[in-house]
Design brief:
This protein has 16 helices and 20 strands. By secondary structure, the chain is α/β, with parallel strands linked by helices.
């Protein structure tokens, strides 16, 4: 885990670019950062796929903001702190809920087509953990797509922003605690590119592909977290991985997320006997927070020997379902399921990483000139369990903040990366390695050991295997995206399991059968890791 760079590259032979600010990512956080920085700086937005290929694009539920009559930022603050199970940073949450409404109003002013009850009145829905109807949605259940489409249009129209699609972020350029930009790999051309910038913004999203079953797109392999860790940044709360409780479970079907808003509109969770069971686990029933619902489903499956539970909307208005959930309705029809009358088989799957690169209230990491925001970052907003629909708001507020702070650096002189090489040349033999096999094994191992319920023995054995794999996976100098992704996934997997082993309690999304209670006296704190600790043998 103490690798500084993945590749040995001669900087003198690599073509280079020098924007004022480089933003790595493609979702709502990256675009918000790019738009803020581009006010008075040249911005290069780099993404390893297309602009639309992000968790933002696939977000169904919506964006939470205290805009409805009778709601307030204080109410939103309270709900977020409760969901976070004691580990939220109140200052961070207060900034989120206070600035959030203005950022959402900005989206509206830019033409984002949020659904309305009338021309003058926005439509709000309810989701688990929220005490008020404060979730804005667009095109029923295609909120992320609507937001991403409008923001991407603005990016392409902006004179100060350039977009580099299909370029993989191999590593951050760094030396002595300072970030100077990044090294990118042209996915289609196979060539490397050096990008030196006055400020670098990480907005690369999560790491869902580390798990066998996930709602995340294929691009979410933890690249930003791993690169920042290699560059010396502190990561925190990596043990807190959120599982979405209701993901379509059919043989051969992609793990399609069935939005939290479905239960918000009144859907019931049923077990194999057709019984509603959630009130046996929590007084909030079907509207309990995600960690509670996921554990309840897991427990129900274990007690009945079933592989899934069911969602039922049969008691609700078919017209409302058709208008409110057109995307889900259309997708399920492909598998012969009718959302208006059939029981939909669902089970939990990896959905969101609460932890990540540690940042302050202005999106700064502890590596100079490096900022991080959105799912790749951890500033204490989500604590031990993210409140539903706070992620898009996080991207809007802290992506904008990261871009604003990057702009301040862009007004200063250009730093020059002092190293001609990333590291001394190494003589080594290339070993035959089946990347797909190691990747599949890693996903299965992490799913078994760091899933909804964890224990000492399983995680200890898993970490031993992960550490063994690093002996030959990290030694390889891949020049393919799949190989580089594997190295990042392995780094993130090690951090997740190490964090889960270290936290000897149960809290939020982190549940241990051998430490079933929450221990505020010893563990109401963050678990952090730094690469330098492993170099010292920590």
């Amino acid at each position: 885990m103490n690798e500084q760079y993945l590749l040995d590259l001669d900087m003198r032979r690599i073509p280079s670019l020098a924007p004022d600010v480089v933003v790595i990512g493609s979702g709502i956080t990256a675009i918000s950062a790019a738009l803020a920085a581009a006010e008075n700086a040249s911005v290069l937005l780099v993404t390893k796929s297309s602009l639309k290929e992000s968790n933002t694009f696939y977000a169904q539920g919506g964006v939470a903001a205290a805009l409805a009559p009778g709601d307030s930022p204080e109410n939103h603050l309270k709900d977020t702190l409760v969901a976070g199970a004691g580990l939220c940073d109140e200052d961070s949450v207060r900034k989120l809920v206070t600035l959030g409404p203005a950022r959402v109003k900005e989206l509206i002013d830019w033409g984002t087509p949020f659904d309305r009850e009338s021309k003058e009145k926005l439509a709000f829905t309810l989701e688990g953990g929220h005490g008020h109807r404060r979730i804005l949605h667009a095109n029923g259940d295609a909120t992320g797509q609507a937001i991403e489409t409008r923001l991407a249009q603005m990016i392409h129209e902006h004179p100060n922003i350039s977009v580099l699609e299909n370029h993989f972020a191999v590593d951050l350029l760094h030396m002595d605690g300072v970030c100077y930009g990044m090294i990118a790999l042209d996915v289609k051309g196979g060539r490397f590119l050096k990008i030196e910038a006055k400020a670098t913004v990480l907005a690369t999203g999560g790491l869902g592909q580390v798990y066998r079953e996930t709602t995340n797109p294929d691009v979410t392999t933890g690249d930003g977290m791993a690169a920042a860790f290699r560059a010396g940044a502190t990561v925190q709360d990596m043990e807190f991985v959120q599982f979405h409780p209701t993901v379509l479970y059919l043989a051969g079907a992609k793990r399609f997320l069935v939005s939290e808003a479905v239960r918000g509109e009144g859907a019931h969770l049923l077990n194999q006997k057709g019984e509603r069971f959630m009130t046996r686990y929590d007084e909030r029933g079907d509207l309990a927070p995600r960690d509670v619902v996921s554990r309840a489903i897991y427990s129900e499956m274990r007690s009945t020997g079933a592989t899934n539970v069911y969602l039922s909307l049969a008691h609700l208005s078919p017209k409302m379902i058709q208008e409110r959930f057109p995307t889900i309705l259309k997708t399920l029809r492909q598998y012969g399921l009718d959302l208006t009358k059939d029981k939909i088989p669902v089970r939990p799957a990896c959905h969101y990483m609460m932890g990540g690169v540690r940042t302050d209230l202005e999106a700064r990491t502890d590596v100079q000139r490096l900022f991080a925001a959105g799912e790749v970052a951890s500033c204490g907003i989500h604590g031990a369990n993210r409140l539903a629909s706070n992620s898009l708001l996080d991207g809007l507020v802290f992506g904008h903040e990261a871009g604003r702070q990057a702009l301040k650096l862009a007004e200063c002189s250009q730093p020059t990366f002092p190293d001609k090489r990333v590291r001394p040349m190494r003589n080594k033999e290339t070993i035959p390695l089946d990347v797909d096999d190691v990747r599949a094994s890693l996903k299965s191992l992490v799913s078994r050991s760091a899933g909804i319920l964890r224990d000492l023995e399983t995680m200890t054995n898993a970490l031993q295997m992960l550490d063994f794999w690093q002996n030959y996976v990290y030694a390889e100098e891949f020049q393919s995206v799949k190989g580089l992704e594997l190295q990042n996934m392995l780094a993130c997997a090690q951090l997740i399991v190490r964090g889960a082993l270290k936290r000897e309690e149960s809290r939020g999304a982190h549940q241990r059968s051998d430490f079933p209670n929450t221990d505020d006296a010893n563990w109401k704190k963050h678990v952090t890791f730094k690469r330098s600790e492993f170099e010292r043998g920590a």
